[in-house]
Amino acid sequence: MSESPSKSSFTLIISCPDEVGIVAAICQFIAQRGGSLIESNQHTDVEQGWFYLRNVIDGQSLSIDENRFREEFAPLADKFSMEWYLRDNSVPQRVAIMASHSSHCLADLLHRWKSNELNCTIPCVISNHENLRSMVEWHGIPFHHVPVPKEDKSEAFEKTANIIERHQAETIVLARYMQIIPPAICSSYSGRLINIHHSFLPSFIGANPYQKAYDRGVKLIGATCHYVTEDLDEGPIIEQDVIRVSHSCDKDDMVRLGRDVERSALSRGLRYHLEDRVIVRGNKTVVFTP
Amino acid sequence: MSESPSKSSFTLIISCPDEVGIVAAICQFIAQRGGSLIESNQHTDVEQGWFYLRNVIDGQSLSIDENRFREEFAPLADKFSMEWYLRDNSVPQRVAIMASHSSHCLADLLHRWKSNELNCTIPCVISNHENLRSMVEWHGIPFHHVPVPKEDKSEAFEKTANIIERHQAETIVLARYMQIIPPAICSSYSGRLINIHHSFLPSFIGANPYQKAYDRGVKLIGATCHYVTEDLDEGPIIEQDVIRVSHSCDKDDMVRLGRDVERSALSRGLRYHLEDRVIVRGNKTVVFTP
Amino acid sequence: MSESPSKSSFTLIISCPDEVGIVAAICQFIAQRGGSLIESNQHTDVEQGWFYLRNVIDGQSLSIDENRFREEFAPLADKFSMEWYLRDNSVPQRVAIMASHSSHCLADLLHRWKSNELNCTIPCVISNHENLRSMVEWHGIPFHHVPVPKEDKSEAFEKTANIIERHQAETIVLARYMQIIPPAICSSYSGRLINIHHSFLPSFIGANPYQKAYDRGVKLIGATCHYVTEDLDEGPIIEQDVIRVSHSCDKDDMVRLGRDVERSALSRGLRYHLEDRVIVRGNKTVVFTP
Amino acid sequence: MSESPSKSSFTLIISCPDEVGIVAAICQFIAQRGGSLIESNQHTDVEQGWFYLRNVIDGQSLSIDENRFREEFAPLADKFSMEWYLRDNSVPQRVAIMASHSSHCLADLLHRWKSNELNCTIPCVISNHENLRSMVEWHGIPFHHVPVPKEDKSEAFEKTANIIERHQAETIVLARYMQIIPPAICSSYSGRLINIHHSFLPSFIGANPYQKAYDRGVKLIGATCHYVTEDLDEGPIIEQDVIRVSHSCDKDDMVRLGRDVERSALSRGLRYHLEDRVIVRGNKTVVFTP
């Protein structure tokens, strides 16, 4: 499953109304251009009549280049009313990370990035606190401190948007950023703005989920990686994970244990996103896990 | 951990305000009567200043009998303002099971009971449907069909209460019973009325949790075993479990997969209850898992 | 994912050397005959250069019948050197179950079958003990008692083979059968003889795995569902599962806890097999989990 | 459960032959000195007739100091033939970490240490490679590069032993160190030398476990945190964890996925060790998990 980023490959993502002959048409198109399939995932939502496909194509097998592929594929895409894109996997995505005071998710992502686990570059980290600067800069990544004053946050978010734009980030990860993102950014980065919520959504929506979990006496706590929409904590879920707790855990223990599932859910969710395994439709996702 | 039911043993359960010397006093009391501890669990809720203890005592090591123990222990219990009881583990608890149309939880409990996994007798099964009669009777257990008409349920629940009383059930298990239990029964069987809810509470409270889970697009579904109180789905949680689902699961798949976690959460929860591992305080539980 | 057995559908299973154009050729073949894909799974083993496909085709969409499909598909299959078969999902597979003294796996399978979770019929249960007869017959399934004397087992296995043949079983499930199956049966039912081993293979191969696990002090125990080959405990693995144990578990506790993972691993493994999600190659499996 | 390291507390660890009255005697001893129990765990191995206890005592409640406690407790300990020790939790243990080329376990431990998750100091990191120096030094921890030449390793290990001694390390963690530790160090640090093995022991003992797991076609891979003894991969197990893999995982994917369970098993194992939750007896452990 692991397409080594150094090996040339393209990922073709398609979703469209289901119809007889779609797969045949797509695969014939690819085969006629010499394309060898490294990985292929399909899903048909029979109820909704909707078709989803992810094909990873060996780049060296293709007789045409990326742009030519797009040109020649367009008429076929139109015929089946496809939403689609082709990704060149040799070009790592640019991922801006936003963090607040907590280091655990950020440290985990930076380590995975440095270990070549994630096929992306990280052009910048933005935080409303200063405390993580040294860790970020040690990784050779620019750190931007953008305080977010309670009274007026608009200027801070304007500045934030500029930084992200300047760094040409395609995806934004909120690694426990803890600030509500303004609607403008949510819609600009629709399907590309990833959050980790520190509860097993839809349980304990909103602030202080660990306190709420402690008060309710649950026996498992969780974390949810999801795309951010204007509806707080209601966006499409990419990945979730849980961990067992007991009566002997106080709230601080839950916070500590929760960090482990936050890390794992976020890093898996981001990985799925970067490998184009996630297709959003409405408020739900198709996730072609390996 | 497994105290074989045939081997004579007593379980002493205590909860009280925390104080220096409680454990010493209790253990000295037991030791002075020759009592050998097979298993001992303690918990101190530092925040609440509350102490919890579960001691399993080898019956053959005790120099006094059960009643004498209770008599002699009472003054000590008073001194520390204990809530306490002593259980003779050679007397299996009497557990009435209530079920509706679905067989999976009931079949699982009956099989475990027949396999001597649960230290209880099952004096009766009550259902508002007829379809499970044969399965229950094959196990040699009386089956009572008590229909619950939508218009007026009071008579049905009066009848139900009579059956349970007649069978001298100490604990009631709702094995997917799907009817709201009237407050009178809830309070009579407080801490002894166990339900399995087919969601990871507090997510998807109320009816049709699998449909809600499907609509929300969660990546894990769960089940919750809890004591029933008058507040629907809000009682103290004993045990929870989850299972992974994907975009390829429709609602029926979730229902099917959910059965497995319903079974496991309910059977573990009941086991903990029958082994006196669960101590309720307020709306939360201490569960001394093995 | 759940193809309701009542709804007409066919599953096409293919494995062959990888080559450009295979998927296109297959899908074009299906599309030209009106075939609508309900589910499609593919895998390419890049290292081995081998291709695997599972397509579930809506039966009502096909313009030709099953036999015609086979005839017309054969030349294509030859061209790509395919190993392949087409399954009519409206014809449930015939599964003979063999059990010994333990009831838990058998009871679980029978309950799932009765609940329509498994798309199969169970023409018979064979056991070397008498104790499970009543349970099996209550389900309306013929029970055959075939004792296996230690001195000479050949006659017993001849009788067993006859019973299985007479009942035209396509698949045999060893639900904790605890006897070594003779090579002749292993090879006759290659890829169709499923065992549940009560350990996390390759740990604790051979007899008494729970005792060995207890002696080694492991913190997780497991179960392994695999196809049986002549090499004991070495056949292709279909599914595995684990459960946490602690120092407080004695060997009997491990046996009891292990039952739960034996049940879950076996029932999932059998389900995958019955849905033709498992393709064996060499000593390994491709399992297209839903 | 979380005893904040800043709050004064002592942990008393005892194991001895089981006898009536042990707990009473111990708890009376503590209570008579005003000691308030924050946490208490007991286990009786009935088969072996052996008793295990872990008591966490509130330091401020005690009327005597640490040394006096030890003096006064000694006669009681002798009477019951106890192996025992008392730990002052305000003095963090000194943990030396040894690593090789891989960064994931080391980075995880350093981050947890820096986040105050682990009650220890890390006086030094020793590695046979240079590549992790910068990461270690960024954390303000001395890094020692001790190459281990294939031809003669004795000098390297002598040097290693000196460094560890000089830094007065009480516990050594092998964070994927990948070299066999000589018997002298194993026995000097018996019960204080912790390794993470990259397989679910006893499966795939020895080198290249991920390759072996890939070749066998297992569906779960794991990691094992254990104390090192002279018998390679055979020491007492502290903690294990597993993660699901599929046919689509090649060996490199297994290596990558395995890192996550290596991290989690090692960090939990070390945490249990640092909180004196682990008692070794023979080749097995009692682990009082929270």
Automatic annotation (TrEMBL), chains A, B, C, D:
Entry function? Catalyzes the hydrolysis of 10-formyltetrahydrofolate (formyl-FH4) to formate and tetrahydrofolate (FH4).
Q: What is the lineage of its organism?
A: Bacteria, Pseudomonadati, Pseudomonadota, Gammaproteobacteria, Cellvibrionales
Catalytic reactions of this protein: (6R)-10-formyltetrahydrofolate + H2O = (6S)-5,6,7,8-tetrahydrofolate + formate + H(+)
The entry's active site is 233
Q: Which residues form the ACT domain?
A: 11-91
Biological or metabolic pathway of the protein: Purine metabolism; IMP biosynthesis via de novo pathway; formate from 10-formyl-5,6,7,8-tetrahydrofolate: step 1/1
HAMAP family per record: PurU
SUPFAM superfamilies to which the protein is assigned, alphabetical:
ACT-like (SSF55021), Formyltransferase (SSF53328)
Origin species, per record, is: Candidatus Seongchinamella marina
EC annotation? Answer: 3.5.1.10
Query: Transmembrane ranges?
Result: none
InterPro entries cross-referenced by the UniProt entry: ACT-like_dom_sf, ACT_dom, Formyl-FH4-Hydrolase_C, Formyl_transf_N, Formyl_transf_N_sf, PurU, PurU_ACT
Name the UniProt record assigns to this protein: Formyltetrahydrofolate deformylase
